[in-house]
Design brief:
about 90 residues; alpha+beta; Zincin-like; 3-stranded mixed sheet; 3 helices; 3 strands; about 40% helix; about 15% strand; globular
Amino acid sequence: MGLTIDEIAVLELKSRWASCSDKKRKVNFHWKVMMAPASVIDYLIVHELCHFNHKRHNAEFWNEVDKYYPEYQKQVAWLKVYGAALEV
């Protein structure tokens, strides 16, 4: 995607799978993400990286997600169905 990220962190996020910060070029992932299928993890990475170009979940944002991960809707659906069950 041609981006440089300064820091990646794995944390206990309260209500998100991931987040990002423009100031430090940092991406945070909830620790439960590591238990998801690789395709879901790939989607979450693309999702967060697209936020560096588009802050809101508007049409331009979703078009960019689709550009890099065309089957992203399957991963969104997987998270809605199985995400709450991700446990150690």
